[in-house]
Every structure is written in C-alpha cells, then in structure tokens.
C-alpha cells in the first residue's frame, strides 16, 4: 500500500535571508526558476520567537512526541503520516529521491 503524500513548500526568511520578497514574489520566482509543482504556504517563520505553530510542533519533542528537530537549512524534510504523526526527519542535504526516504513512503 502506498501512503498518501503531500509536499507543501513553506517559504521563510529565517535561513540566510534567502526569501526576503513577498509571498507573490516568492511564488513567481519558484514557478519561473524551478517550475515547482507543489503548493506553497504563505511566508512563515520556521525558527525564532515568531515560529509558525506547524514548525513549533515539528521541532519540539514535547509537542510531536518524537524528538527535538532544529531547522538547520532549507529543504529539511519532515514526514508526517496521514494521521498527523511525525514519522521521520531528514537533513536538508538528503536528496528527495534517496532510497531511505522513499522506503518510508512505500
């Protein structure tokens, strides 16, 4: 059985000031440069005092029940199952088609 999969992009400017534009500018850049086929959320904070509640849950063991997972750079991957449970976290450098990651999806 194949798990259901959704890949949202969550633009933010907390990591190296790489997404300083508006949501519309970021969307246009992603579409033009990378032709991203996945939805983008509104621009959010993934770290710091204004951290979005989703990232607070993803990164704090007392909320997700799995572990503490600091956001280290763009393209960090959090796998959440269809029941809303955090299943795995992969480093930003992990290729999206890496065998270990794909095995979790099958």
Brief characterization of the structure:
This protein has 4 helices and 2 strands. It is an alpha+beta fold. A hairpin with a 5-residue loop joins strand 1 (77-80) and strand 2 (86-90).
Outline the fold blueprint.
Elements: H1 23-34, H2 53-59, H3 61-64, E1 77-80, E2 86-90, H4 99-105
Antiparallel strand pairs: 1-2
Structure notes:
It contains four helices and two strands. The chain is of the alpha+beta class and 106 residues long. It has a two-stranded antiparallel ribbon. The longest helix is centred in the N-terminal third of the chain and has 12 residues, at 23-34. The N and C termini lie close together (7 Å).
> What would the average pLDDT be, to the nearest integer?
88
Helix/strand order: HHHEEH
Sheet with most strands: 2 strands, antiparallel
The backbone outline, from C-alpha atoms, is globular
Number of alpha- plus pi-helical segments: 4
| Rg calculated over all Cα atoms | 14 Å
Percent range for helical residues? 25-40%
**Amino-to-carboxy terminus distance:** 7 Å
Work out the number of β strands.
2
Category from helices, strands and their pairing = alpha+beta
Low-confidence segments, given as residue ranges, are none
% residues in beta strands: 5-15%
Cross-sheet strand order for the largest sheet: 1-2
